[in-house]
Amino acid sequence: MLARFMPQVEIVERISDHVLEPAHAAYYSAPPGQYLRLFMQARKDFLSIWRRGDYRERVSQIQLLGRQVVLVNSPDVIRDILVKRRDNYERKSPQMRRALEYLLGDGLFISDGPTWRQRRALVSDIVHKDRVPAFSPIIEQTALEMAHRWQRIPDRTTIDVLPEMAALTAEIISRSVFGRELGDASTTEVSDSFTQYQSLVDSTNPGYFLGFDEGLPMVRTPALKRAVRRLHRVVDRIVEDHLAGRGSHNSMMELLIRRQKRNPELGLDAVALRNEAATIFMAGHETTAATLTWAWYLLARAPWVERAVHDEIARVCGDRAPTLEDLPNLHWCQAVIDETLRLYPPVPILARQNREADEIGDIRVPRGSLILIVPWLLHRTESLFEAPHEFRPERFMDGRKPAPYSYIPFASGPRVCPGQHFGLTEAVLCLAILAQRFRLVLPPEQKVVPQCRLTLRPRDGLPATLVHRPPVHASAASGATPREKTQGMDVPAGSCPFSA
Ligand code: HEM
Q1: What is the pLDDT of residue 434?
Q2: Relative to the CA of 346, which ligand 1 atom is closest?
Q3: Which of the listed residues 92, 255, 417 should we mutate to test ligand 1's pocket, taking the one with most ligand atoms within 8 A of CB?
Q4: What is the pTM of this model?
Q5: C-alpha of residue 276 to centroid of ligand 1, in Å
Q6: Distance from the CA of 117 to the center of ligand 1, in angstroms?
Q7: I need a surface site. Which of 28, 48, 364, 389 has the fewest CB within 10 A?
Q8: Can you tell me which atom of ligand 1 is nearest the CA of 285?
Q9: CA-CA distances (angstroms) from residue 2 to 6, 7, 34?
C-alpha cells in the first residue's frame, strides 16, 4: 500500500561522442494533485519532484496542506527577493532552522535579525577572500598529503570518492578553524558526527505544513543526541584550549576570540564560539566535499574534458605540484568546478520564510509562507543555459558568464556564502593537485543517483578505480615556475593525517 506513495526515482544519464548528460532525476510525472505522494517523495529526495514545467523561467505556487509554497525560478524575481526585498526574506525556512538548531544553536547559518547581522560581519571578515592566501598553504599541504597516501594505494584499487573528499575537506577546514593540533581522531569524530546528524534529521518538518508557523522542534532521538554530544565534546575542548591561550595562533577560532577580546559587546561566550566554529566547519566542509566528488564523477564520464584538464596542468605546472599562484592559469580546472556547481549545486535549495505578507509576481503570499529558490532548477533552465542538462565547462571559459542571478551556487544578496572564495580556491586547487597524479575511473554500468539531503550528494557514494598517472616529463613544463615549498609529492613521513 505504502509503496504506491513511495515511487522509485528514474535516473537519466546519456553519454555519446563528446556529449555527456550526467545523472539527474527524470521529470516527475505522477498525476497532479497527489500531494501525499509528492510529500513522501520529497522526504526521500527533494530533487525528484519537479515536473518539466518547473524547469522554466517563472514563478509558481502550490498549496501543501495548510501552507503556501512559492517556487521562484526567474532571475529578476530572485534578485527582488534576495537583494531588493531582502529584509522580508532574510529568514531561513523553519525546516532549515529546526533541522540544524540542535547542532548549531544560534550559529550564523540559521540565525536572523540582530544576532545574524552582528555575527555575519564577524564571520565574513574571518573567511573573507583577502584571508584566503593565508590559508592556502593548509589547502596545498593537506591535498599533497592525500596525494601521498593515494600514491601508496596499489594502482587500480577501488576507493569510494565521497568519503575520501569528505576526509580531505574536513581536514582542511578543521586545520583552518581549529588549528593544526586537532589531530586525526578528533577530525574524524567531528566529521563523522556531522555525517551521522545529517542522515538522521528530517528536513521536511510536517508540523509546519499542518499550521505551525515556526515548525515543530525535531524529536531528539538517542542517536541524534549521541551525534550532537560527540561533536560538542570535541569542539568545546578546542574552545576551552583557545580561551586558555593554548590554541593555534593563526586559526579562525583564534581570530574569533581576538575579535571578542577587542569588542566585548559581541558577547561571544564559549557556546557562541562553539556554534560559529561548528557552523563554519559544517558550511565549509560538506559543500566543498560534494563539489569535488561531483567533479570527479563528471571527469570520469567525459574523458575529452579530463584530457584537457591533464594537458593544462602539465602545461602550467610541469612536474611540480599546482599552487595558489597557478590558479589564474588553470582555466579548465576552474571551468570544470564552475560547471560542476551549475549541474550539482551542493546547496540545491534556498528556502526562506517571509516575515510580512507580500506579492511575488502576481501571486499573493501570506506571511510565513515557504519561498523556494532552487538552484537545481534554475541552473537547468533552457532559456538561461543552452543544453542545460549537458556537461559543458566551455560555457564558463573565454570570459563567458551566465546572466545575472541565473547562476547562484553560493546564493546571492546579504546571505551570500561568505566562504565563496575559500571554497572555490580549495576545490580548484585540490582538483588540480590530485588530477596531476591520478585518474578516477567509473565502470560504464555504474549507477550514480543524485540525492538531496541537507546537501546534494551521490546517494550511494562514488566507488571508483584509482589509477596512477605517469609522472609528467620536464619537456611538457613550458613556462612552469617551480616553487620550493610544494615541489614534488614528498611529505615528511608521519605527518600524513590520512595514514592508515
Ligand atoms: C563550494 C563550496 C561552497 C558552496 C557551494 C557554498 C554554498 C553556500 C550557500 C548556497 C550558502 C547560502 C545558503 C542559504 O542562503 O540558504 C552558504 C552559506 C554559508 N557558507 Fe558557504 N559554500 C561553500 C563553501 C563555504 C566555505 C569554504 C565556508 C567557510 C570557510 C562557507 C561558509 C558559509 C557560511 C558561514 C554561510 C552562512 C552565511 C549566512 O547565513 O550569512 N561556505 N554557502
Answers
A1: 98
A2: 5
A3: 417
A4: 0.92
A5: 13
A6: 16
A7: 364
A8: 27
A9: 6, 9, 14
> What cell was used for 196?
551521522
Burial class (CB in 10 A: 0-12, 13-18, 19+), 359: exposed
Contact in structure between 75 and 57 (CB atoms under 8 Å)? yes
The pLDDT value recorded for residue 47 is 87
Name every protein residue with a CB atom under 6 angstroms from any ligand 1 atom: 92, 108-109, 120, 123, 127, 279-280, 283-284, 287-288, 291, 341, 346-347, 350, 409-411, 415, 417-419, 422-423, 427
- Asked whether residue 495 is domain-assigned, the answer is no
Q: What ipTM, to 2 d.p.?
A: 0.99
Whether the predicted pLDDT of 491 surpasses 70:
no
pLDDT reading at 478 higher than 90? no
CA atoms of 358 and 154, how far apart (whole Å)? 60
For residue 164, the enclosing domain spans 2-486
Q: Is 417 annotated as a binding residue?
A: yes
Nearby residues of 333 by Cβ (< 8 Å), 6 or more positions away: 309, 312, 313, 428, 431, 432, 435
Provide the CA 197 distance to its chain's centre, in angstroms: 16
8-12, 246-250, 306-310, 453-457: range with lowest mean pLDDT: 246-250
* CATH (domain of 431): 1.10.630.10
Q: Which atom of ligand 1 is nearest to the CA of 92?
A: 16
Give the total number of structural domains in the chain: 1
| Amino acid at position 159, single letter | I
Q: Which pLDDT score is estimated for 9?
A: 80
Q: Which residue lies with its CA nearest to atom 7 of ligand 1?
A: 410
CA 417 to centroid of ligand 1, rounded, Å: 4
The helix/strand/coil state of 484 is: helix
Residue 492 pLDDT: 37
Which residue puts its alpha carbon closest to atom 14 of ligand 1?
Answer: 350
For range 159-163, the mean pLDDT: 95
